[in-house]
Amino acid sequence: MKFLCSRGAVVFVVFCSLFIDITIYGIVIPVLPDLLQGKFNSSVGLNGLFVAIFGLGVLFGAPLASYVSDKYSNRKLPMVVGFVALAAGSLGIAYANSLAVLYISRGLQGIGSGVTFAVGLAAIIDIYPAEMLDTPISIAFTGSTIGGTSGPIIGGVVFKYYGQHGIGYLMFGAAILILIIRIVIPDSDQINASLAQEQNNPKTSIDLEDGLPSDEQGTDNLIEPTTDAKSALESPEFSSQRKEEQADKEITYWDMLKEIRIFLMCIVTIFVYGLVCSVEVVVPISFSEKGLDSDKIGYSFIALTIGSAIGGLLMGKVLESKYVTNKFGPYKKRFVFIMIGSSIA
User: Fold this and answer.
1) Does residue 106 contact residue 53 with C-beta atoms inside 8 Å?
2) How much helix, strand and coil, in percent to the nearest 5, is found in the chain?
3) Residues sharing a CB contact under 8 Å with residue 19, sequence separation 6 or more, in sequence order
4) pLDDT digits (tens, 9 = 90+) for 284-323
């Protein structure tokens, strides 16, 4: 199918990836009191650790996967490995009979989520020019927002009727589903090659007089590069010079953190997600003490995320508008709106 080798296919798989990542993250949130305090008789303080260990997995998986993915120019294989980690961690939660197994499995889920989240967004960046990134990125992040809404609801209902095994099997099935989708969709370099081939080989019109494609007329006027120019481009000295120039352009994580905008984005991310995670820990405990079941606790998270879904879709269109681009510039506009949104939050 032609769609499989299109940009839309990559956006679709990343949308599904972020949706399932965050759904898997959120499925367990409303059931924490029943699972940790009810089954394992653990202290309430361990609820926060359960949320934090997922984040630690992301912190380990995302940078490592990003480095490996860039080094070997491969987006597909790291994402496949990430989904396998998500599936394995989900099965671990389904059969966990001790806190140690439960927490290790949750950490494995975090690693898988970090890998697929980071590399998935990189796959979109690979196939779109910078000025066209806003809409596909906003679509992808809408998947994560919808997952944030549906995850707690689904988890609360499934746990109420099917218990620990039910939510574990559900997360495992979701991970396997997106794994299959990722395997079917080609990697970014293959899609770029396909797009380049389409641009370089457009449909040619036929000249009725001589039966030759019109693109072939006038080819005698093309100037062939001289032998000296070819030999200069193919010489070892030229190749080594290009490699040295590419090596000089390599950017490390520390180099990126020295950029004030990237550093501020890291601070904003820590602040925003810190607030969200604190809500995810406190709300289930508070509502559980008031006698609410896991399904009703899950419903309460709708209010937290439904606005984000709407905002994410709208911002993609707003950022691509000519007015905003001319007002703030093609790159600064994103920084400005992120800071405004964070201040409102």
Assistant:
1) yes
2) 85, 0, 15
3) 143, 144, 146, 147
4) 888 888 888 888 888 777 766 666 667 666 776 777 778 8
- For residue 253 the two structure tokens come to 């994580």
Contact between 20 and 177 (Cβ < 8 Å):
yes
Q: Is residue 212 part of a domain?
A: no
Overall number of domains in the chain = 1
CATH of the domain at 319: 1.20.1250.20
| Per-residue CA distances from 117 to 21, 181, 315 (Å) | 8, 15, 20
Tell me if 226 is assigned to some domain.
Answer: no
Flag whether pLDDT at 242 surpasses 50. no
Nearest 5°: CA angle at 338, between 270 and 152? 55
- Entry pTM: 0.73
For the stretch 278-286, contacts whose Cβ atoms lie closer than 8 Å and that sit 24 or more positions apart, written own/partner, are 279/304, 280/26, 280/29, 280/51, 281/32, 281/47, 281/48, 281/51, 284/29, 284/30, 284/31, 284/32, 284/33, 284/47, 285/32, 285/33, 285/44, 285/47
The DSSP bridge partners found for residue 206 are: 213
- Please answer whether residues 167 and 85 qualify as being in contact, where contact means their C-beta atoms are separated by less than 8 angstroms: no
Residue 244 domain-assigned (yes or no) = no
pLDDT at 28 over 80: yes
Radius of gyration of the chain from Cα atoms? 25
Question: Residue 19 has which token pair?
Answer: 């949706």
